[in-house]
Write a structure and sequence with these properties.
This protein is mainly alpha-helical. Helices cover about 60% and strands about 10% of the residues. The protein has eleven helices and three strands.
Length: about 230
């Protein structure tokens, strides 16, 4: 197991009351085996799920004012989904820090996506209780804001970034930009598209979007910033 100090550094938050953090990392299997009076992380997970949902909703509402209620709901559902949250949990090796019972340990609990996501949400709940809403906001946006900012919100962009990128490439005597659809996530009526842009065959940037065209524009915007800045 990794140390809780290491995990706090990865999260960018140091707990005032470490008991909140310890509880957030405690699975019910461990609490039941040890008959812990402090309990497990299930209640914190419940709280953290709500805090996360609010923070994502608030950010999307403020940063994408042109979106409809349905589009905002679609994006929120993607960003708070287990499939999305587990990527961050795995990136910080959250499984190493979980307190599990012997049975859960033997069945690979440290890599189970459900346990990782539950623990991440419990940590968000613990940060909210320990440091307040603004600290929880800071931690959540630290790992979600870049992704949420880069999303292409509609086909009707204020600027045509694909054309702007191609013009910049021509000015630099470079090749064309090609766009590759990397993934489609969600049901047919709520898909989120991920597109990668390649320049001279080399991957440069990715973008998310509610449509394939919007994802291409988001990817082009990121690529344009990198190409323009050398």
């Amino acid at each position: 197991m990794g140390s809780v100090e290491d995990l706090q550094l990865k999260l960018g938050y140091m707990f005032r009351d470490i008991q909140f953090f310890t509880k957030a990392l405690t699975h019910s299997s461990h609490a039941n085996e040890r008959a812990l009076h402090a309990g497990d992380n299930e209640q914190l997970e419940f709280l953290g799920d709500s805090v996360l949902g609010f923070l994502v909703s608030d950010f999307l509402f403020r940063s994408h004012p042109r979106l409809t209620e349905g589009e905002l709901s679609k994006l929120k559902g993607f960003f708070v989904s287990s499939a999305n949250l587990v990527k961050y949990a795995e990136r910080i090796n959250l499984g190493e820090y979980l307190q599990l019972g012997r049975g859960e340990e033997k069945t690979g609990g440290r890599t189970k996506q459900t346990l990782l996501v539950d623990a991440l949400e419990a940590i968000i709940g613990a940060i909210y209780l320990d440091g307040g809403l603004e600290e929880a906001r800071r931690v959540v946006l630290n790992f979600l804001e870049p992704q949420m900012e880069d999303v292409g919100d509609s086909d009707r962009q204020l600027r045509d970034f694909k054309s702007a990128l191609q013009e910049e490439l021509q000015a630099q005597y470079r090749g064309r930009a090609d766009y590759v659809l990397r993934s489609e996530e969600g049901p047919d009526h709520q898909k989120i598209f991920t597109v990668e842009v390649l320049i001279d065959g080399e991957p440069v940037a990715e973008g998310l979007g509610l449509t394939k065209k919007a994802a291409e524009q988001a990817a082009a915007r990121q690529a344009l910033e990198r190409v323009s800045n050398g």
